[in-house]
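Workshop exercise sheet. Pairs work together: one partner reads the sequence aloud, the other fills in the structure field after running the prediction. Swap roles for the next sheet.
Pair: D.N. / O.F.
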Amino acid sequence: MFALRFLKKNKFDNYADYIENGQPIVPENFNFAYDVIDVIARETPDKPAILWTNDNGERKTFSFRDLSELSNAAANFLLSRGIKRGDAVLLFLRRRWEYWVLMMAMHKLGVIPIPSTNQLKAHDIEYRIKTADVKNIIAFDDGYIMDEIKKSIGDQNIQLISNVDVANALDHMPRTLDRVATNNHDTMVLYFTSGTTDMPKMVAHNFTYPLGHINTAVFWQRLTDGDLHFTLSESGWAKCSWGKMYGQWLAGATVFIYDFGGKFPAFDLLRVLSENRVTSFCAPPTVYKMLIREDTSKYDLSAIKKADIAGEALNPEVYERFLKLTGVKLHEGFGQTETCVMLFTNQWIEPKPGSMGMPAAGWDVQLLDERGRPVTDGEVGEICVNLASGKPVGLFEKYHKNDKQTAFSYRDGYYHTGDVAYRDADGYFWFVGRNDDLIKSSGYRISPFEVESVLLEHPAVREVAVTGTPDAVRGMAVKATIVLNKYFHGTDALVRQLQEHVKQRTAPYKYPRVIEFVDTLPMTISGKIKRALIRRLDSAKSTIEGAKTTVIDTTKNVISKAKGAK
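Structure field:
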């Protein structure tokens, strides 16, 4: 396992030992592409780095020697196109294998990649071009994204290169490359945030960032030599860096990549997992929800020994059903685009369904109240990282070209995540929501996730977003915006049934006094619920009268009013 070269110890006896000695050691002027990929290629050239396949049946395996040589060729191609150290390049490559080759090539040159999702529209791309001062774009030639990119470019002097141009050039470019000097604090990669509450920000990670993912892959995902790991993420998201390159290769695993267009049906995912004998899998909760609804008896999932979940908090029911289906315990992890994994359940921590677990080595995670004071166990506080001993490896350098936001997030000796949680008496952390999502009703602080988890246990509820909505008496009332499962209808009787369901399973003051049935929930392109949009729409509506509940019956396309439970 290559990661051991960057750790104080080769083996850890327990969680306390890991916390004390598990923080990565960072060499001077570290460059992942040269100091990991090229070294593995020299020492074990035939070791598989990537197993790539797609929905057309194509299949390719890349060894570390292949990855090293192809990234050199790609670097020479970029140089031939005038792209050099410090230049920012937008990448729209879906899950094409060229993405991984180009990322390593750009790291070698000190070029700054900006991975981007193929779901963006022209105005999204235009915003990114302007904000990041982009002069070069490399994209998957699939028609749609190319059309959107061309609309966004207009008459600007921007070089557009397709993945086909890259692939065709690799056979003709030299596969040797002189090392380009980079510094640990240079920007290695830029990611745009999801923009759930504001315009997307540019998160700048430096060249030490890959070593932070030793925690992600070795200790959270528990990967070892011989594992075939599959993280279900498009290349445009930071989750790709979490699960499809840095930490996995440091752990000795092979990265499995399945490239597909459109939405991924659950039965196809089960087929892919089964046929390719994937041993380790990581996906957001919504994917696991889809899987457990399918008839898994048709597929052999016995190769899966490790499964992880991140992106949003885990509903305990999903944990229990997946465990029953596969015998595998889901290990939850928490982090952001700005971080590596900072809270998780690992090999020394028994998962508590729904808990994020405990801090990763090097991450002094504390929960602070609104005055910046640590809260006691059971109290809700903002998830913050204490910087008294320095920034942990993997925490972002800055918000690119946004000093004001950087200063706001790095203040008073802490990095402030903007997320809130509580810690139980055993030291486990439990996600509550974004600071803005917390509902303050009649003096109570209510977690939207807790109410969502309870509602999802009801057979009528397919998807739900819980928010606070203006209330003349309580300040805010708990509102549930619900997408129903097939054969259920948004009736007054169902409203009362759902309200009683929540009252019976959690503190009565948390029940949703307002329930709205909709066909779909507003989502970001990364699949996160836009609770802020729901709140804004509610604020624009007239004040709720008393405890009345608005019910939208989508099956009849009418709006009716019903008395809520008192």
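Discussion prompt: The chain has 17 helices and 28 strands. What would you look at next?
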